[in-house]
């Protein structure tokens, strides 16, 4: 073999081996299991109380597989598959949906951001949970439909997250309805802008959802703002949302919340929250009060106590647990003690 051919072959071999080394994928199994005992008043139409085992009260119970592959040029392929399940009986949270939490694939670049396609958390979710003092607990702002059940997760969607520049970042989502002859059916369009600096973080979000086939001209419109500020061991947070449009995934009106978190010690956290939902054009309202104490046995295992009370007036019928109902105008009180483990 000529020297030039040998050098060329060696260089090509080095290039291939370098690319293969850079392209080694990283796969991570992760998740958390949360199980507790709950006492709930007015748990049925007759107003009876209930004592039961529950799951996902402090945080959702789920497992997931996350994969990344370095493609070079500061770009990586990303995959995320995650399934929510009920730890009290092992059943699927959403029967028939194999990966009910998230299921997407896409690309991320350090300069241009991340673009993914599949099943995602909504932009409204992303820009609410970080300001919710209860942070995804069952008793929280999710109990008053701040995020409607239909838009908690968004199927058939493309989602873009920008990198943070001078504290500013954006997030966009578009859902394809997929209905022949009616591209608006089931369409979801969301956009947000967020600013973070030091102990402050705040965001503004638009979420628009069209009705399904036959109702595609109707629309649920939500405009939300939220913020929090952390100084030393105390975090103050709050948010507001205006709900309008003819679709009304929950009643037209406005909902708002305020919260306070206190890191008493490295292993003990306390938080309290109040939320309210005022229905437009009526005296109906929903007011909820939530308190949580969490004690960390380790970095992965936490004991918690969650307590709440919701007061419905008029046509208000929201339960303490998200997307549950009571009799019209009926109050509900609940408490859960549980254990959560992350892996």
Strand order of the largest sheet: 1-3-4-5-6-7-8-9-10-11-12-13-14-15-16-17
Share of helix, binned? under 10%
Give the overall shape. globular
**CATH class descriptor:** Mainly Beta
Query: Low-confidence runs (pLDDT<50, min 5 residues)?
Result: 1-21
How many domains make up the coordinates? Answer: 1
The major β-sheet equals: 16 strands, antiparallel, barrel
Looking at the structure, the CATH topology is Porin
The CATH architecture name reads: Beta Barrel
What is Rg? 23 Å
Strand content: over 45%
Count, helices: 2
Distance between the termini: 55 Å
Write down the secondary-structure element order: HEEEEEEHEEEEEEEEEEE
Mean pLDDT: 92
Which class best fits the helix and strand makeup?
mainly beta
Number of β-strand runs = 17
Q: What is the assigned CATH homologous superfamily?
A: Porin
Can you tell me about this structure?
Strand 5 (102-109) and strand 6 (113-121) form a beta hairpin. The radius of gyration is 23 Å and the shape is globular. The model is unreliable at 1-21 (pLDDT under 50). The protein has a 16-stranded antiparallel barrel with strand order 1-3-4-5-6-7-8-9-10-11-12-13-14-15-16-17. It has a single domain (26-342), classed as Porin (Beta Barrel), CATH 2.40.160. With 343 residues, it is mainly beta. It is built from two helices and 17 strands. Helix content is 8%, strand content 53%.
């Amino acid at each position: 073999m000529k020297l030039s051919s040998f050098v060329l072959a060696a260089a090509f071999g080095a290039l291939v081996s370098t690319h293969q080394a850079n392209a080694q994928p990283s796969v991570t199994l992760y998740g958390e299991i949360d199980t507790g005992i709950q006492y709930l008043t007015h748990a049925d139409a007759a107003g009876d109380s209930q004592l039961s085992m529950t799951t996902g009260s402090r945080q959702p119970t789920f497992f997931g597989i996350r994969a990344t592959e370095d493609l070079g040029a500061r770009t990586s392929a990303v995959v995320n598959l995650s399934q929510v399940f009920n730890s009290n009986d092992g059943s699927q949270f959403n029967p028939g949906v194999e990966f009910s939490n998230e299921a997407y694939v896409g690309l991320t670049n350090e300069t241009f951001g991340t673009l993914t396609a599949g099943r995602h958390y909504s932009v409204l979710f992303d820009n609410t949970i970080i300001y919710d003092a209860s942070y995804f607990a069952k008793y929280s702002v999710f109990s008053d439909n701040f995020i409607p059940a239909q838009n908690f997760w968004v199927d058939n969607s493309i989602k873009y997250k920008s990198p943070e520049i001078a504290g500013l970042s954006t997030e966009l989502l578009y859902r394809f309805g997929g209905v022949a002859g009616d591209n608006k059916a089931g369409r979801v369009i969301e956009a947000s802008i967020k600013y973070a600096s030091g102990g402050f973080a705040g965001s503004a979000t638009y979420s628009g959802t069209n009705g399904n086939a036959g109702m595609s001209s109707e629309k649920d419109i939500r405009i939300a703002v939220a913020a929090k500020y952390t100084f030393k061991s105390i975090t103050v947070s709050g948010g507001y949302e205006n709900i309008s449009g003819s679709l009304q995934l929950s009643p037209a009106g406005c909902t708002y919340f305020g919260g306070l978190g206190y890191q008493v010690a490295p292993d003990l956290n306390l938080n309290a929250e109040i939320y309210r939902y005022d229905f437009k054009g009526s005296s109906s309202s929903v007011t909820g009060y939530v308190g949580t104490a969490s004690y960390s046995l380790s970095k992965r295992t936490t004991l918690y106590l969650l307590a709440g009370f919701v007061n419905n007036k008029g046509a208000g019928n929201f339960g303490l647990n998200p997307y549950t109902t009571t009799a019209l105008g009926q109050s509900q009180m609940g408490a859960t003690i549980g254990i959560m483990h992350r892996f």
